[in-house]
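FORM 12-B: Structure-to-Sequence Request
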């Protein structure tokens, strides 16, 4: 099989008029042996397997990672997964690309040799030894080398992850954490930039990074670091809290952690940092009831409710889902619901998010509305005042129609039960207000969704 390369060329039809693009197409044939048998694309980094067949490294890596143990062409079981660079073929491809540069080909750069497990193991030993001796500059030099490996390719990142670098770097971070807060955080900042793609860490790595010293240093970066360091600290903290409840319990005791996370939402530096901050708050507010009673009022006092509602107004799908998750946890607490009731936009925003964002966003919006409506008697015994006003506003926003659509489209069992409760409550309010006939909607509630 021969693959073709097409290139549009320009020509002048009229010198006196503006240039126009000619529709003629020129084709140049790429030699078959220059193309990867898997992707059928021109190879950039050809490697040969034990079966003697050559593939592009990226394609064969993906083939093996997907669990395949055979050669794609011969179907023979691979005796070894070793990949030998085919330098002569790569040189031929590079020369061919250079000769055909007039057709738009760019000379393929010589690929870097991927890092090996042995190299990672050796550099980890050197980092460990330099950490024990307190050699900060040496550690920084080695950490930068690991960071550069990761920049070169995803394959290198996986190799570094799989050979214990995360544990060694976590230990190094803990050892220099106190010095970073007292003087400067160059080394610990470099380590954070690598750790963001190292998770999940091993048990020892988690223990090191989850220590009080390390957590204090993370929060210090959240408060005092530059933009990049604050983002990395938020990402590492979020990943750490997702691993174990004990890290959540330890982190909430660190002074300034709440203020720093809320600041990242109030004064956003990038969407990635905002999402990381929201997820960290999500983990902090989804723990035990005793911790919730302490953390949720603290976040509420910091103005988190109004910030989340602002995010929901024009946030993208991912941010909306995370913000709704946090808001749902806030509504588990009486103080949180009280603050939510006070916001004039809450009902409008929640009704708008149903069906229009994602299934998860719809279910979270329903859950929040259910918590608000179910507890409306906390504020008024008969539901006529402020909290009851929330229900009335939902009726005016067309909540019944939106909820019925979601019920018909389909959702989880738990959400379906909440939907039915919400619809019955809304219908009761319509009857109570005396301006609607409930018979039409009751027939929908009786349908076996």
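FORM 12-B RESPONSE
SEQUENCE OUT:
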């Amino acid at each position: 099989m021969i693959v073709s390369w097409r290139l549009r060329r320009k020509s002048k039809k009229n010198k006196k008029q503006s240039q126009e693009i000619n529709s003629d197409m020129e084709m140049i044939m790429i030699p078959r042996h220059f193309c990867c048998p898997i992707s059928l694309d021109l190879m950039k980094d050809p490697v040969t397997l034990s079966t003697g067949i050559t593939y592009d490294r990226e394609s064969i890596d993906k083939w093996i990672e997907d669990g395949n143990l055979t050669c794609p062409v011969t179907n023979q079981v691979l005796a070894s997964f070793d990949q030998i660079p085919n330098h002569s073929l790569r040189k031929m491809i590079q020369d061919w690309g250079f000769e055909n540069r007039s057709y738009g080909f760019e000379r393929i750069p010589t690929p870097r040799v991927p890092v090996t497990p042995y190299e990672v193991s050796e550099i980890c030993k050197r980092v460990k030894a330099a950490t024990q001796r307190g050699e900060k500059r040496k550690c920084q030099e080695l950490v930068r080398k690991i960071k550069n490996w990761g920049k070169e390719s995803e394959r290198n990142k996986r190799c570094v992850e799989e050979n214990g670098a995360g544990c060694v770097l976590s230990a190094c971070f803990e050892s220099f954490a106190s010095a970073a807060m007292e003087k400067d955080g160059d080394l610990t900042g470099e380590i954070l930039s690598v750790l963001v793609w190292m998770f999940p860490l091993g048990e020892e790595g988690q223990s090191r990074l989850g220590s009080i010293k390390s957590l204090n240093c993370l929060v210090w970066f959240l408060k005092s670091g530059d933009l990049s360091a604050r983002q990395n600290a938020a990402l590492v903290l979020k990943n750490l809290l997702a691993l174990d409840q004990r890290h959540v319990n330890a982190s909430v005791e660190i002074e300034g952690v709440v203020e720093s996370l809320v600041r990242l939402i109030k004064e956003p530096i990038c969407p990635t940092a905002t999402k990381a901050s929201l997820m960290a708050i999500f983990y902090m507010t989804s723990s035990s009831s005793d911790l919730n009673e302490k953390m949720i009022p603290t976040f509420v006092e910091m103005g988190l409710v109004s910030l989340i509602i602002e995010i929901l107004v024009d946030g993208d799908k991912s941010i909306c889902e995370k913000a709704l998750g946090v808001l749902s946890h806030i509504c588990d607490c009486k103080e949180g619901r009280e603050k939510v009731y006070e916001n004039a936009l809450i009902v409008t925003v929640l009704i708008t998010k149903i069906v229009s964002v994602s299934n998860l966003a719809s279910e979270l919006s329903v859950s929040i509305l259910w918590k608000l409506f179910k507890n409306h008697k906390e504020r008024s015994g008969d539901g006529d005042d402020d909290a009851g006003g929330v229900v009335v506003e939902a009726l005016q926003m067309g909540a019944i129609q939106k909820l019925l659509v979601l019920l018909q489209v389909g959702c989880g069992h738990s959400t379906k039960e909440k939907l039915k409760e919400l619809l019955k409550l809304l219908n009761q309010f319509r009857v109570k207000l005396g301006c609607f006939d409930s018979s039409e909607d009751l027939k929908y509630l009786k349908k076996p969704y």
